[in-house]
């Protein structure tokens, strides 16, 4: 865990900042007709922000205008004051420059500053900026001395999610890259380029011709850990498939994956402190999925970390994973959101052993248990026919994670009819028969 120095704040001469509502308060600020076009789930707190600017890089899954940004402080133990915030279009992949004329100031209830309480978030006012599908956005935030709520650990790639940390000071209005070194600094708070690392920014939504949003709720196999190359996560590739449809038939895609996350409520197998891997999926379901603008469908791919266990938690039984899935589906249905269940991919567990038996039991339930509105069979898409306890070699990065080719196979395994985008579509009545998956 890296440490970040405290800074002494100067007294601001601008008007008092807006104060955001705490997490769980009714959000009356979401206008109708908007959809989340991108998201990244924050997972923990990593120290305190120095006196620098973070330029977060996101990618819009569909074309959108009138953009809003949600910034969050879900895990902070004190308020986070954002003293300046802007959004623009990234000029070139892997660089911090902005497209000339694209910079927009973000305001919050008309103010340039906003204070977000512990556990809360704030939406910016909409800005007149249009972004094309698969185009990168740069969201620059200046919040010295704020608790750093971060997202980290996707694949090392020049494409988003990523960020640039600046030299000292407020550089939110810089359109060039002079204050943003481009040396790869990995997971740290050093000025430079940080693949897979974001601070505070959670969601971008906007007005779009799309008919809503698909949210992918998952763990490292949704964040894209070990997928190499630019934007090669299965969710990115799924968005590109959907982009080929006419605009009125498209859906936006939002990625709510957190590496190391569990689907059931338990001590995290990898980090009992809560700084690594986010809260269990049921505890972050509303914030990271159901509360997003325009959400219509949820794809649930979680359970691998529960079943695998780790240093701080033993392997979970299949029943615990299934019970968590039941809760998620029940709550999603209560909000009018349909849920597609995904089977769990091979984990190199010995055939006949307890871990593999539990994985097979979960997958059998996903396929035949009647809980989900549809099923995508990632297990069948990537497993080795000669050894179904392993991902096939051409698709495997390691025992738990597919590589870029594996993510491509996962994206192709998703039937667009599951979202009403072709073929037979979803069943019209949850009491009736489900479509073939």
TrEMBL record:
It comes from Streptomyces taklimakanensis. Residues 168-187 have a biased composition (Basic and acidic residues). One of its GO terms (molecular function) is hydrolase activity. The keyword Transmembrane helix does not apply. Keywords: Hydrolase, Signal. The lineage of its organism: Bacteria, Bacillati, Actinomycetota, Actinomycetes, Kitasatosporales. Residues 216-409 form the SGNH hydrolase-type esterase domain. The keyword Coiled coil does not apply. Residues 1-20 form the signal peptide. Gene3D superfamilies: SGNH hydrolase (3.40.50.1110). This is SGNH hydrolase. Pfam families: Lipase_GDSL_2. Residues 150-191 are annotated as: Disordered.
């Amino acid at each position: 865990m890296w440490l970040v120095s405290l800074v002494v704040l100067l007294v601001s001469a601008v008007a008092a900042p807006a104060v955001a509502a705490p997490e769980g308060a009714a959000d009356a600020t979401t206008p109708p007709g908007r959809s989340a076009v991108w998201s990244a789930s924050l997972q923990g707190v990593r120290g305190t922000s120095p006196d620098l600017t973070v330029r977060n890089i996101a990618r819009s899954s569909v074309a959108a205008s009138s953009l809003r940004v949600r910034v969050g402080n879900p895990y902070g133990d004190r308020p986070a004051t954002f003293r300046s915030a802007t959004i623009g279009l990234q000029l070139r992949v892997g660089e911090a420059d902005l497209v000339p004329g694209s910079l927009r100031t973000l305001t919050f209830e008309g103010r340039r500053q906003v204070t977000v309480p512990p556990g809360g978030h704030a939406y910016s006012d909409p800005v007149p900026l249009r972004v094309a599908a698969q185009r990168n956005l740069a969201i620059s935030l200046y919040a010295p001395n704020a608790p750093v709520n971060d997202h980290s650990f996707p694949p090392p790639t020049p494409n988003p999610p990523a960020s640039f940390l600046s030299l000292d000071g407020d550089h939110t209005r810089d359109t060039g890259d002079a204050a943003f070194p481009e040396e790869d600094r990995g997971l740290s708070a050093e000025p430079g380029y940080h693949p897979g690392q974001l601070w505070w920014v959670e969601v971008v939504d906007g007005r779009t011709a799309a008919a809503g949003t698909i949210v992918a709720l998952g763990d490292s196999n949704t964040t894209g850990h070990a997928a190499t190359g630019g934007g090669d996560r299965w969710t990115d590739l799924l968005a590109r498939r959907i982009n080929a449809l006419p605009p009125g038939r498209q859906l936006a895609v939002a990625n709510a994956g957190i590496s190391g996350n569990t689907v059931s409520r338990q001590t995290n197998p990898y980090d009992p402190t809560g700084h690594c891997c986010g809260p269990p999926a049921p505890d972050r379901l509303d914030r990271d999925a159901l509360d997003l603008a325009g959400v219509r469908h949820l794809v649930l791919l979680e359970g691998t970390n529960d079943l695998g266990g780790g240093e701080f938690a033993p392997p979970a039984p299949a029943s615990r994973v299934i019970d968590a899935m039941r809760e998620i589906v029940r709550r999603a249905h209560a909000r009018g959101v349909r849920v597609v269940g995904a089977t769990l991919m091979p984990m190199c567990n010995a055939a006949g052993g307890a871990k593999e038996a539990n994985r097979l039991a979960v997958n059998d339930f996903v396929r035949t248990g009647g809980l989900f509105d549809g099923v995508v069979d990632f297990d069948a898409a990537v497993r080795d026919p000669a050894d179904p306890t392993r991902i096939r070699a051409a698709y495997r990065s390691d025992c738990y994670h597919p590589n870029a080719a594996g993510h491509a196979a996962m994206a192709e395994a998703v039937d667009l009819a599951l979202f009403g985008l072709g073929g037979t579509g979803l069943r019209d009545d949850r009491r009736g028969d489900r479509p073939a998956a």
